[in-house]
Amino acid sequence: MSTTRLGSTNRTEAFSDGVMAIAITLLILNVRVDTSYVAGHGLLRALGHEWPAYLAYLTAFITIAIMWLNHHALFDKVAHIDKPLAWTNLVLLLTVSVLPFPTAVVADYVQGGGINAKVAVSAYGLVSVVNGGCWMAAWHHLSRNPQLLRAPFDGPYALLERRRTAVGVSTYAVATAIAWVVPVVALLLYLAMAVFYAATSSGSQTPAYEAVAD
To answer: pLDDT of 83-133, one tens digit each?
Structure first.
């Protein structure tokens, strides 16, 4: 059981929303036209030439949006926050704020193939593994400190969520290893996990927890 002072989640939620909002807004700054390419090929072709930047922007936007949904789903179930959970949330926000960088690297280097593509996709995977680890750590802490949760959520529910998150962490780890062999397959696995977490952004649902008030 945690012995640190418990506090309201309001400031943590507001700060987290702010970090995610800034991160998702700044993504568009990575999308720009190469003026030197315009000079040789015209604006229309130059706009088409930037498709990797568009893909990087879309991927990062969707990924952060999913994290935002999952973050709200998590804190809808948390009544109080203590220092360990606050620090876990801060590390989670670190991975959110840095995610646009490996996404842009993937867009820049995956087309060329070779070692650069493998490094780029692996870097994305490593950030995703750390991010998933933060979610696991949060649910693990809540399972050990169920007094932080809102009724009727309890320790067993937090354990259920930790196991669900572990599936994603394991998949990201496997995909990161696969990236050193077939980067494109790894990217498909990353996409599959994004879809999985988008579909389950409300968390695990069992009959015992379906009657939770909004």
So the answer is: 999 999 999 999 999 988 888 888 778 777 889 989 998 998 999 899 999
**149 phi/psi in degrees, rounded to 5:** -90, 155
Q: What does the chain come to in residues?
A: 214
Alpha-carbon gap, residue 93 to 105, rounded angstroms: 20
Asked whether residue 2 is domain-assigned, the answer is no
Q: What is the mean pLDDT of the chain?
A: 84
CA-based nearest residue to 6, from 79, 74, 75: 79
Structural domain contains residue 4: no
Q: Is residue 88 part of a domain?
A: yes
pLDDT tens track for 171-197: 889 989 999 999 888 888 887 777 777
The structure's pTM equals 0.81
Long-range contacts at 15-18 (CB < 8 A, ≥ 24 apart): 15/93, 16/71, 16/75, 16/89, 16/93, 17/68
Tokens of residue 32, six digits: 């720009």
Range of the domain at 129: 10-209
Domains in the chain: how many in total?
Answer: 1
